[in-house]
Amino acid sequence: MNMKRYFSYCIVWVGIVAFLQSCSLSRDPLDSFSDVTEGVDEKGEYVAFKDKGAVLSHRQAMYDQIRNRQEHWYLDLLLVGDAHADNAYAGTTGAEVLPFENNSIEGSNSVLARDWSRYMEDVALANKMVQYVDSVNDNSLTSAERGQFKAEAQIFRALVYFDMVRLWGDVPLVTTVAKDITSENIKEVYPSYFPTQSTEKEVYEQIQKDLLEAIPNAPANNAANKTIFSKSVARAVLAKIYAEKPLRDYNKVIQYADELAADGFALEPEFSNLFGMNENNTDAKKRNTQESILEGQFFAGNGNWVTWMFGRDLTNYNSNFTWAKWVTPSRDLINTFQQEGDQVRYAQSIVFYQTTWSNYYPANNYPFMYKLRSAVNSLIKYRYADILLLKAEALIQRDGGDLNAAADIIDQVRTRAKLTLLPSATRSSRTALLDALLKERRLELAFEGQRWFDLVRLDKVESVMNAVYARDSGRRTQVYPFTNYSYRMPIPQSILDQNPNLKQNLGY
């Protein structure tokens, strides 16, 4: 039901039927409709969680979002992070994905509409736990458990808002569960259902607040289980937000990168351990590597469908391989791998198959992104190489920067890839070293949804993206030039139609 129509109907109903106490909207705030009501007590007061079991069930629902709802936090982020940058083409000619390649994205884009709604569902899940876990009337739920579950929800909410703010900039900041609407509280409750946008800086400040509050009570890093919202996940996101412009603090990037090292994180010795398969292609080569900070894990029998969207599922080779896949590696990226002589990461990032389509390459030698190659491979949300290279960026960029220390980090990553060390001329030049870092991140993190956000963070969108169309012969014709407005995605028009208090981002 259209939300504005539902809201108007509720007001009319309250006004006409005087004996009704309220017109209840037992809904999560904003744009998603999922029932969150456990019930009411004998006094008629709302009960979010009736007991510990209900809390544990809700906690599991948060974690299930990482496993079962991959579209917004993985699939679509790769479309934005790689196909909207120079790493990839859209992969298909579908109207929902092609605009990310040729820069013709509009507010009507169905991918962005889906993502906005899914993110807000995630926020609602987190808010319910944060707001109500302390008031659960069940003595078997200990204070330590309450603190941990609340911390996990705050970390979950922080990583959701980090994705949202990087995509859209100013977004509604909702940190509580909306009350039911009654005739007496309409003016009070209305903003909860139709919130205005908070500034980008305010959203980052809330992310920071959530993470800092969560660290004391969040579970510690577990080397055998990288699927939890741990202290280390919070530290990783803190390192990332302090590299972004609104809260930029390079010393804190370095601090949290070092804290992750103290938590036991390090580069995995073999790059293939991160994304590879066992010798028989029946299972992932390795899970819970020392480099993985947060991942969604899948096993035989409960596999991950999203692999169908990018290439072959090596555990079921011919399954779902009859249509053109998303995020096709670009010629520009392939050339960069080859010019660098980077065979290790190239072999783990790109694979060639024969296809029945030829949208971008000849059908008999068609490249695919290869970092998700089966339904039992993990989806890695954060890994230590990303944070380590952010530390190098911070060392280059901060006042009185340490170029040698930054170059040593880049060389550490290059050494694992069996590449030569950076030349002295690069190590001694801030500009050259920053360019080397950006290229290193491109090759190391290809098809992990990072490239676009690197260009945005370092103000490289216009210079890189407006030039790539001329040198990449396979890229679809550019529709609009990239400008300073391009740094944000358009807010979905369907969301604007529902909430009159939202404003479209400039340029759309």
Automatic annotation (TrEMBL):
The record's PROSITE patterns line, in alphabetical order, gives: PROKAR_LIPOPROTEIN
For this protein, the parts annotated as crossing the membrane are none
Gene Ontology cellular component annotations, sorted alphabetically: cell outer membrane
Signal peptide per UniProt:
none
Cite the InterPro entries for this sequence: SusD-like_N, SusD_RagB_dom, TPR-like_helical_dom_sf
Matching entries from CDD domains are given as: SusD
- What does the UniProt entry say about where the protein is found? Cell outer membrane
Can you say what this protein is called? RagB/SusD domain-containing protein
| Ranges for domain SusD-like N-terminal | 91-242
Q: Which organism is it from?
A: Sphingobacterium deserti
Keyword presence, Lipid biosynthesis: no
Q: What is its main location?
A: membrane
The source's superkingdom equals Bacteria
Keyword Signal assigned:
yes
Pfam families hit by this protein: SusD-like_3, SusD_RagB
Query: Any idea which UniProt keywords this protein has?
Result: Cell outer membrane, Membrane, Signal
Q: Which family does it belong to?
A: Belongs to the SusD family.
**Record-annotated RagB/SusD domain positions:** 263-508
